[in-house]
Design brief:
Bound molecules: 3,4-dihydroxyphenylalanine
Strand order of the largest sheet: 1-4-5-9-8-7-6
Structural class: alpha+beta
Number of strands: 9
Strand content: 15-25%
Helix content: 40-55%
Order of helices and strands: HHHHHEEHEHEEHEEEHEHHH
Radius of gyration: 44 Å
Shape: rod-shaped
Amino acid sequence: MEHKIEELKAAANDAIKKVATDLKELDNLRVRFLGKKGELTALLRGMSQLSAEDRPRIGKIVNEARAQIENLIAEKNSELKAKALQDKLAAETIDITLPGRKIHSGHLHPLTLTLNRVKEIFINMGYSVEDGPEVETDYYNFEALNLPKSHPARDAQDSFYITEEILLRTQTSPVQARTMQKHKDNAPIRMIAPGRVYRRDDFDAAHSPMFHQIEGLVIDEKITFGDLVGTLDFFCKEMFGESTKIRLRPSYFPFTEPSTEVDVSCPICHGHGGGCKVCHDSGWLEILGAGEVHPRVLEMSGYNPSKVSGYAFGCGLERIAMIKYGIDDLRLFYENDVRFLNQF
Ligand code: DAH
């Protein structure tokens, strides 16, 4: 009996040691040696044939054998589990010396960048930023700006009419009238109004049926043409660089009197020409229209032209961006070619 137990221990020891990775295999061994129908249990059954004095001694040996085999299995079990963990960690090792994958992040569109800068410059001068509808009435788009139905200047802005009285706004100037009407009692105004405008133009390097304008309006007591010039000069220097100069040409707009068109010195060749593609060697680029607010425009929106005066200006956002970045084709802004956009 003792001999058989020794043999059984040796067999269990051997078998358990041989298990290399498989936990299931180890469990099968536990059943084979210690289970209800296992080999050690079978040996125990044989105890009934032993003499009364042998029984306690052999019983003790069997119990010790069981404990030993259980220990072996437990040890092997933790060994296998540790090994499995080790293998898993090895398989999942990250090589931190590999160069990382570049994450391409998007960025703001050049028109947005330009608009943000324009807003920043005017907000710093105390201007508010106003908004108005893109689907506008004929009244605000034209009449309130001193352009009655028969006015020839309407033709210059070929419009998308929705009904006879409603159109897509052709300019941001209607926000002038809307803002004046929001205020009362000749209250001072200092605002810009950026936004989309629409005209029936063909799509080419210089035209688009949709583009962006920024309107400006300042009204207060004793506002002069000199204030307008100083403001625009400051704006252009902030926008295009300290050495930028402006030049005024007399012009006509129905909503301002007197009116002017404003050019900036070319920020690409600094007015030196020399084959400059941006200003075509003229040294100057037209940037905006402006003037003193026409008394009739003030009156129509409830302001008293004998008490207050004002100036207004309007420029194309695309125009500013083209001058700033030296871009010669408007279509680039709308095509969303990443080779173009990535440059900003
Ligand atoms: N609305 C004019 C246009 O679209 C631009 C303009 C000119 C706006 C003179 C003004 C201004 O406020 O005073 O051509």
